[in-house]
Amino acid sequence: MPTVAMWRASKQQAIGQEAIHSFDDHVYFLNHILVATNKVLLAMESSGEQVAGILACNPNWVNQLYVHPEHQGKGIGKTLLDLAKQQADERLYLYTFEVNRKAQRFYERNGFRIVGRGRENEEQLEDIRYEWIKP
Q1: Lowest-confidence pick of 17-21, 33-37, 123-127
Q2: CATH assignment of 2-133, among 3.40.630.30, 3.30.450.30, 3.40.50.970, 3.10.450.350
Q3: How many CB atoms lie within 10 A of CB 128?
């Protein structure tokens, strides 16, 4: 499944760690768990053959936002994040890994502010909780 391959490649590049779940587990998670409580949107490259990005969000949370490493810096992440903001209630939250400095800069440029820190993830990496308040 091209979506899962892109998601895994992007996450691995972002945190410098291989996936802790199998490819098949990620396919199941995307198709059965993530879609149950989130709107899942894909950004496709211009040929329509490769997934360039994925957004999974609900009115309060951005649960997944990944852009394929080859397509980063082209505005895809911002477009997906803006779609999440449009459907948000009053506030939108997300977590990012502390090791992912690129994501931190991206979210802060796009109006998110740090509201917490912890280690609320399976990877057992330090993470940062961000909040965006709808104007």
Answers
A1: 17-21
A2: 3.40.630.30
A3: 19
* Beta-carbon contacts of residue 97 (< 8 Å; ≥ 6 apart): 14, 15, 103, 121, 123, 125, 126, 127, 128
d(C-alpha 123, C-alpha 18), whole Å? 10
Instruction: State both tokens at 7.
Output: 């998601």
Q: What is the pLDDT of residue 18?
A: 81
Domain ranges of the chain: 2-133
Instruction: Give the span between the Cα atoms of 4 and 42, in whole angstroms.
Output: 11
